[in-house]
Write a structure and sequence with these properties.
Layout: H1 15-25, E1 28-32, E2 38-42, H2 46-57, H3 61-72, E3 73-76, H4 83-90
Antiparallel strand pairs: 1-2, 2-3
Amino acid sequence: MQATTKYLTIDEITPEVIAEWKEKYGSVYKIPIETGEVCYVRTPKIKEIEAAQVNLNQGKFLTYNIVLFKTCFLGGDDVTSHERKLMAASSMMMNTIETITATVEKL
């Protein structure tokens, strides 16, 4: 039997909880939805991005974002049973991937 992860509700998320998440995961993001819900997610790891990438290869862009959202969800309002809210929140996942630019010089 698989254990169920308990996520914190929006009322349980304090500045101290956010500080703990940052310590554990690095970057943490707040995703407010225009309908009033708020979700908190972390940056996905490379292995998580790679695992979800199969969806991109199949042209399932929404599914890719939803997989990353569900994987990285830390707490807040549960929007998974509301299709439009889930699409809105999950569409922000690409904004959580921090990139550093590099250049190459021919020598």
